Amino acid sequence: MIDLGTVIAAGTADELKTQIGGEVLELRLCDRERTPEAAGAVIGLVPGGAKVDNNTGEITLPVGEDGPAILTEAIRRLDSVGVELSGIALHRPTLDDVFLALTGREAEGLEVEPAPAGRTSRRRRRRGGDGRA
């Protein structure tokens, strides 16, 4: 795994996922407007690394080996503040989750550029709003 031209982790996808350990809890809210309030209620359950998306109303928490216990407590806390969920999932981490855990921020996406006939596809960095790759 490379971040800004520096190798930050090495191994197969499964090895990298195992390095951060455990599972990931994903919460999707019925009301996106309440995302900051919901995040405040559950982020203290894990030591950092949470991803909060105010646009989609999704909160992702790395929960390690305590997934079922943290899931139960997260639901209790959200219920106590009256936040309803439209979806919840507990699963093994993705490579995006690994990058977030290692760097504290999301990875920039890659787009696959269609190849002309007879050639292989090329990957290119998606450009941010400032025009830089």
Can you characterise this structure?
The chain has 133 residues and is of the alpha+beta class. The chain has one domain: 2-Layer Sandwich (Alpha-Beta Plaits). 29% of the residues lie in helices and 27% in strands. It is globular and about 45 Å long.
Q: Report on the biggest sheet.
A: 4 strands, antiparallel
**Regarding CATH, which class?**
Alpha Beta
Any guess at the CATH architecture? Answer: 2-Layer Sandwich
CATH evolutionary superfamily: YebC, transcriptional regulation domain
Q: Helical amount among residues, as a percent range?
A: 25-40%
Are there runs of 5+ residues with pLDDT below 50, and where? 110-116, 119-133
Radius of gyration: 17 Å
Strand order of the largest sheet: 4-5-3-6
Q: How many structural domains in the coordinates?
A: 1
Measured distance between first and last alpha carbons: 18 Å
CATH topology description:
Alpha-Beta Plaits
Mean pLDDT over the full residue set: 80
Structural class: alpha+beta
**SS field, number of helical segments:** 4
What percent of residues are in strands?
25-35%
Number of separate strands: 8
Any chance you could write out the topology, listing elements then pairs?
Layout: E1 2-3, E2 6-7, H1 13-20, E3 23-29, H2 35-42, E4 51-53, E5 58-64, H3 67-80, E6 85-91, H4 95-103, E7 110-113, E8 122-125
Antiparallel strand pairs: 1-2, 3-5, 3-6, 4-5, 7-8
Summarize the structure.
This protein has 133 residues and is of the alpha+beta class. Helices cover 29% and strands 27% of the residues. A hairpin with a 2-residue loop joins β1 (2-3) and β2 (6-7).
